[in-house]
Design goal:
Helix 2 crosses helix 5 (66-87). By secondary structure, the chain is mostly helical. It contains nine helices and no strands. The chain has helices at 2-7, 11-26, 29-33, 41-61, 66-87, 94-119, 122-133, 141-155, 159-164. Pfam families: Ubiq_cyt_C_chap.
Length: 179
């Protein structure tokens, strides 16, 4: 009986696993090599924010306890960002200020991405991506297609499927425009 208890997964482990899968999706090489994210700390942050925002959007649309899991996912992301800032040598006094700024950025991005996806507003989605990535909106058709397809895939998942799916996002390389 004790062994079965030890084998059971805690809810936090499930959210940690989900975060790792989302973070892995946000690091797909095609996102950086082909779809416009700069391979910089800021670009990696933008890719992570986009992916977490899409997952949280879906979790918030589901019934309880899914929205709580979405908040737990955001908490894990910020715990990892805090750790990363400290590893990069950010001072203990500066970390809270940086985290507050990152939280504001994340909340704004999450709200705007969700609104554009929910409205099916391709123009706004491309504009948001262009603002974040610094290129003309026309250059982001493939990335916008990736975002729309990701959101549609996630919208087809229930809570359990979302938590258990090994790859919550489609391969970004599928959306690379071939010229």
């Amino acid at each position: 009986m004790i062994l079965s208890f030890l084998r059971r997964r805690r809810p936090n482990d499930v959210i940690e696993d989900l975060y790792q899968r989302v973070a892995r999706a946000a690091r797909q090489p095609a996102l950086f090599l082909e779809l416009g994210f700069p391979d910089t700390a800021e670009g990696r942050f933008e890719a992570l924010v986009l992916h977490v925002a899409l997952i949280v959007r879906r979790l918030n649309a589901l019934s309880a306890p899914a929205p709580d899991a979405g908040q737990d996912l955001v908490d894990v992301m910020f715990r990892e960002l805090d750790r990363a800032l400290r590893e990069l040598g950010t001072s203990d006094l500066a970390v809270p200020k940086r985290m507050k700024a990152l939280a504001g950025i994340f909340n704004d991005r999450m709200r705007r991405y969700a609104a554009a996806v929910d409205a099916g507003d391709e123009t706004e989605l491309r504009r948001l991506l262009a603002v974040r990535l610094g290129e003309p909106a026309e250059r982001h058709a493939a990335l916008a297609a990736y975002v729309r397809a990701s959101a549609a895939d996630l919208d087809g998942l229930d809570f359990d499927a979302l938590l258990q799916r090994p790859d919550p996002f489609p391969p970004a390389v599928r959306f690379v425009e071939r010229t």
